[in-house]
Amino acid sequence: MKSAKVRVAVNGYGVIGKRVADAVSAQDDMELVGVADVVPDYRIRVAVERGYPVYASLPERSGELQAAGVPVAGTLQDLLAQVDVVVDCAPKRVAAANQAAYQAAGVKPIWQGGEKHELAGYSFVAQVNYEGALNRDSARVVSCNTTALSRISHALHGRGLARRVRAVLMRRATDPWESHRNGMINTATPETKVPSHQGPDAQTVIPGLDITTLAGAGPYNLSHLHFAMIETTRPVDVEELRAILLETPRVALVRAADGLEALNSVMELMRDLRRPRGDMWEVAVWEDALASDGREVYLTFQVHNEAIVIPENVDCIRALSGTEPDAARSIAKTDASLGITRHFLPSSRPPRVTPGQGTPAGSKGAEEPTAPR
Ligand SMILES: NC(=O)c1ccc[n+]([C@@H]2O[C@H](COP(=O)([O-])OP(=O)(O)OC[C@H]3O[C@@H](n4cnc5c(N)ncnc54)[C@H](O)[C@@H]3O)[C@@H](O)[C@H]2O)c1
Fold it and tell me: What is annotated as the active site (predicted)?
């Protein structure tokens, strides 16, 4: 491993960008050189409070930022001259316009899921295809939903156990910070395009995966809810499924029997655990909803859209810069720095529920087997 720190810029300091900036700052092998944006509201002023040098993504917006009291260290071009990798977190479709600037500066861009696969030609989920991104000139960290589907699908597909995946996604209507602008109320919107884009997108990460997704959105902003039905190549019972999930990075089991009955209670747990911004980087799979009929396995899981791609961006920086050739080591390093876990409440794990049957709160389940933590 090279000793020099990877120098990183974040362009676009919104929902994803601000979290990526904080996560990069937490790495001992990376240096956050600066962040860039165009809007001088409270969000970029938090970057100033954190001591991050702020740059103007567009030169013509520099005056506006300065007029609002934001100390502007220079333009995006000035920032790019100092870095190895830029994590572009500008709004979807806006970001792609930055490609020429990154090429001219000789800086490797990491795009987000709002951009098309073709922009980088490589769609990234660390535990699936880290090695293929090593020393590449660019990569795209896929969307929150695709990241979750890839983690879960790969857990079975990577073991030769997934014949086909069918998933239904109930997406959040909007993000918390802009809920007053875009929130929906007292309705739900089914997408009429089948498959929804997340299935084909997962195939850019896991070629050959037979997956179809249907999606819709509901009037909440806390995260997404997925239901997956995975036809297996041989019978996989709930015990085996559970053991596989416990071995899968960035997947954690939660239990309705512990009071974690819904999206809000899982997010409340994240706040109680004093996680930054209440973030959940893991896919939370309901242990008491796991089921198998010998032909298919059934999973219900929660995806915190604001947070799940953050560790992926950190690993992608290591992959593109070539500073860590081993996926497992990068994942372990990122996970340790952020506090990513397989068990949210490891010190008081109650006896295991019998999956698929649901266990009322307070009742006793079977003994907990030894499992990786
Ligand atoms: N919000 C999510 O749940 C989520 C999850 C996963 C991936 N993504 C993807 O991440 C990307 C960013 O999404 P977001 O939700 O963080 O958006 P956001 O709107 O919260 O943040 C975008 C930021 O970019 C800034 N910006 C606008 N124009 C810019 C420009 N020309 N140059 C630089 N910055 C500019 C905005 O001021 C804002 O601060 C998108 O591709 C999105 O699809 C979003």
Answer: 144
